[in-house]
Prior knowledge:
By secondary structure, the chain is an alpha/beta fold. 39% of the residues lie in helices and 14% in strands. The protein is built from 7 helices and 6 strands, in the order H-E-H-E-E-H-E-H-H-E-H-E-H. A 6-stranded parallel beta sheet has the order 1-6-5-2-3-4, sandwiched between helices. Helix 4 crosses helix 5.
Amino acid sequence: PLTITEDVLKDFYAEFPNKGVFGIGGDHSVSYPLVKTYLQAKKQQGIRAAVIHFDAHTDLLHERLGIDLCFGSWCTHILDDLNAPSDLIQIGIRSSGKPKQHWENTFGVKQHWANEIKQLGVEAITNQIIKQLTNDGVDELYVSFDIDAIDEKFASATGTPEPDGLYPDEVMLILRTLTKSFKITGADMMELAPFTDSTGKGQDSCQQTLAIAAEISAFLITQISEK
């Protein structure tokens, strides 16, 4: 059965097919209805859309603690709505109990782990992504952003901050480069937890995390509005 959120979003896209939605949270499972209805609407419009997923974690579990749809498994539940599993491109992964090959071979997704970006450089990785999207005939992008894709020293006010992540300027460079070739027509910013203080920096940690999330969110909203 559809959730109320999915019902509302389906009605929204039916009424405003050329408009986009930006979501903010909270638990990354909030992205599930946002992404699912977006992909379904784009298919109905004959538009091939890909999901660019920034995250420290794959979110490709089948279940977590007996819960089949949650923040750690929502990506698994949107794969069938993609034209191909490889249209889910994950960027910034670095906290996983299994290697990259497991996720790519099992689910057919494409991943660019944080250490690869550090080793090869943002430009090389972004060029790989653009080449893949172009070869696959992708028209538009949905960006789902977990703030823990950002290194914990910049963004620690989140449920599961992780070290060795992307820097804010690296993220902005990736996004700006992608928008030179593709339109971002839907997006979200997730896993913000202003009252979480894993670094002991208190309010400074909160404000820094929110400032970075706001910069990225403002860019994404601007891109959606310019469609």
